[in-house]
Structures are given as structure tokens and as C-alpha cells.
Amino acid sequence: xxxxxxxxxxxxxxxxxxxxxxxxxxxxxxxxxxxxxxxxxxxxxxxxxxxxxxxxxxxxxxxxxxxxxxxxxxxxxxxxxxxxxxxxxxxxxxxxxxxxxxxxxxxxxxxxxxxxxxxxxxxxxxxxxxxxxxxxxxxxxxxxxxxxxxxxxxxxxxxxxxxxxxxxxxxxxxxxxxxxxxxxxxxxxxxxxxxxxxxxxxxxxxxxxxxxxxxxxxxxxxxxxxxxxxx
Length: 231
Known about the structure:
The protein has helices spanning about 35-45, 60-70, 85-95, 120-130, 180, 190-200, 220-225, and strands at about 5-10, 30, 35, 50-55, 75-80, 105, 135-140, 155, 160, 170-175, 205-210. The longest helix is centred in the middle third of the chain and has 14 residues, at about 120-130. The chain has about 230 residues and is of the alpha/beta class. The strands form 3 sheets. It has a 7-stranded mixed beta sheet with strand order 5-4-1-6-10-7-11, sandwiched between helices. Strands 2-3 form a two-stranded antiparallel sheet. It has a two-stranded antiparallel sheet with strand order 8-9. Helix 3 packs across helix 6 (about 190-200).
């Protein structure tokens, strides 16, 4: 089975990227020839995803215009959070209602995505269907261009757990189904709450990426990554 659905989290405020994000939303910031949102969409399209939801909040009109002007192979629709920011979990829960019980990728455009991740998406999908558990794409913090990451998780036999020392960080890509979100009755909540619940139940799987990890979270990091001339 090939996953045909995905959601891109583009509703963040981009506070740590100011002043860059004062006039342009973070997902539309360019690195090389493409902006962050376009990189995310391209990866999903090239994998074969046919339906994409993009949630919006900060400077939402700019993202909506970019999506409407984009000549995409996928059907892209907007999930509007202009009036109320729902955090990552709440945003995914609302945005993916039209997916019903179909599995879907969730991707964070803060990461510099490229076609190098296509094979890892295949691995993520294989583990998801074999284990029947949500699956995170993780990477060793030693592969992170930003050396400030402390580590979020560990992995053993494709099962995610936390310890006193954690060597892996979340890349920003996961594969999940709606039933894991529907168990949260509140409207505003973080995906971290979902993951913690799944970890406690031994129901969160993972796959370790081998790609160099580039993640834009500050203006300083944006300048450093931009200076690398990545296409």
C-alpha cells in the first residue's frame, strides 16, 4: 500500500526567526532556489502523495496565495487556523478530517527536505504497515548541522523510547492515522502529548535517517545554512 495523503505544518509563528518572519511566513523563506514549503511539497509529490493539507495562521494570506499559484501534481487544500492556533496535534487533528481512516504523512517544513529522503519515506511506510504503529523519522544528533540539539528519543528494534540520555532527534516527518489523535478530546494540544502516550503504551515506532540534518529554527541558523549554497 502506498500512502497518498499528507499534511504540512505551516501555521507556526516563526518567532525565533524574526525579523525575517515579520513580513514573510517562515515556510515561504527561501533556501537556495526553493522556499521551505515548496521543498516539502516537492518531496511529497515525488513520493506519490496525491492529497496535501497545509495549515495556516501567521501571515496566512501569503501561504494561501503561494499554494493557489503553484502548479502542483497534488491536490492541495488549506486548513485555516487564522482565528485560533491549535498547536501541532490540534492542527493535525482538524486538518486531516477529510482523510478519514487513511494513513498520512505529517511533515514540518522547518527541515530542509530533498529527494534524498524518498527512500527513507519508503522505509517509514514499511515499518508503519509491518508494526501497525505510528512511525517517526529520527536522526542521530551527530548528523545535525545545528549542534545545539540535545536529543529527544532512542530507538531499539524500531521501537521509540526515552532514556536519561537520548541520542536521536525528530526530523519533522512522521506517518500516523487519525485514531491516535481522536483519543484527545481537547482542541489545542501538541504532538508531543500524542507521542508520550504512545511511548508509554509501547506503540510508537521509528526509523533512523542517514541524511545530514538541516533544520532552520533561528535567524543565525538560516544564515549559516544559506551560506552553504544548497540547491
